[in-house]
Model the fold of this input.
Amino acid sequence: MSTATPNEIHQLRLQQLAAFLRDSELILTAWDAYSDEHTGNDGWPHDTETYGRRAARRDADTWRSFNRVRQCAKDLIATAEVQLQQLPSASTQSRWAWQLATLDGALDRLTALQREWLDAREILPPSARPGTEAYDDVIGNRNAEAWHSLNEWSAHGQALLDIHAAAQHTPPPPPATAPAPAAPAQAAKPTAARR
Done:
């Protein structure tokens, strides 16, 4: 059985990121359509309870979709940072550096929220299972608090794919050549004295 190469693993992670970006776009498009249809001209929902449940589903669906890249997201950012440093400036976009910083900050917030969720789950009573109010409230709060950071990944995650594509299409720099050795100094020939 052969193991995947680092390049194959990175390609798989990029595919998972691309799948998240497609999913999150569909989730957001569906949410926008729902929101437009179920709010008045003033922006207030017609039925706040139903609207809240639908927003909670949007948040949960986006979190679930991001889970496919959450564990490898730090590696994706680190690889993109290295690739960006190696790219000639003519092959880069000025926004890429701040997009990577935005993704990194959003990932840190998501990691903290996941840790808080796991801690909160530990202190739930044994009767609190998925589908119970106690359990669903805690996970719903995590998902709601994560929405902004997940949305940042939806908005800026494409930068990771773009940096990788630029790195793939940029030829590597030529190998550094050692300077030619200096010619050995020739000893001066003594001149015959004139008589």
